[in-house]
Amino acid sequence: MISIKKLSFSYPKKPRLCEEMDLELGEGKIIGLLGMNGAGKSTLMRLMAGLLKPVSGEVKFQEISTFDRAVSFLNQMIFVPEKVSVPEFLKVNEYVSIYKDFYTGFDLERFEKLLSEFQIIGNQRISNLSFGQQKKLQIAIGLSTGAKLLLFDEPTNGLDIPSKSTFRRVLSGSLQEDQTMVISTHQVKDIENLVDQIIVLDEGKVKLHADLEALENQFVFSQGPQAPEQAVFVESHLLGAQYITRQLEGERISGGSPDLELLFNAVIAGKLTGEFLSTQNQVTHE
């Protein structure tokens, strides 16, 4: 689906945000893109969308360079930025009647259902919508395009708690086998139990790209009064500690779904990396 090879990028007179980055994203996955502020999450999303040109290397969608902005690519990609910009003089239904013509697979019935889920009325003027409602409008459009590649940058920013719950509900199980969704966020809890894969960016590098199922098979994410000595990563708090330990061979322990916030902190601290996971895989299969 998306192939990134030897990608480097920087803005003029600023440090590089991507440095010789390699990444492959397959179909049928919801991928969480995590990183600290300034780590380059939004920049990577814009490179995937073809809105920025790499300094070197390549970003391809099904062998098409994204920066070429070919019609065949644009028809299969939707990018929902963190800061929405919509024509406020139009009504919602007028806006979508224009937007849908750019996507041959646009599902108007699904769009209207999502509007209902998000409690937005079609004949409302966009200027009368709050920022959160405008954000939900863009999300509803994005999910209705039928695009193969969906890029959502901080989609839950500006949403209240019920809207976040609705976002997770409508997204869960709605992705088709030939679609890929990348969600960039710093609000890790908003995408827990939703994503299939996780990517952690730090210092211009991909520090981790892993399936959550594989992580669950290799590690236990738990908490208690005290962390065991063999813990890979520990975070202490007033009531004890949260920690990550390795699964013992032949003793599968259920620790539930990986705690993404704990996982992210472990990666940033250098306790869990792609290299570490590769080593664990080698040990497991020996």
TrEMBL record:
Which key words tag this protein in UniProt? ATP-binding, Nucleotide-binding, Transport
Q: Which SMART domains match?
A: AAA
The ABC transporter domain sits at 2-228
Supply the SUPFAM superfamilies for this chain.
P-loop containing nucleoside triphosphate hydrolases
Keyword Membrane in the entry? The reply is no
Q: Has keyword ATP-binding?
A: yes
Q: Which PROSITE patterns match?
A: ABC_TRANSPORTER_1 (PS00211), ABC_TRANSPORTER_2 (PS50893)
Single GO term (MF): ATP binding
InterPro entries, A to Z: AAA+_ATPase (IPR003593), ABC_transporter-like_ATP-bd (IPR003439), ABC_transporter-like_CS (IPR017871), ABC_Transporter_VariousFunc (IPR051782), P-loop_NTPase (IPR027417)
Q: Which PANTHER family match?
A: ABC TRANSPORTER ATP-BINDING PROTEIN ALBC-RELATED (PTHR42939)
This chain belongs to which protein, by name?
ABC-type multidrug transport system, ATPase component
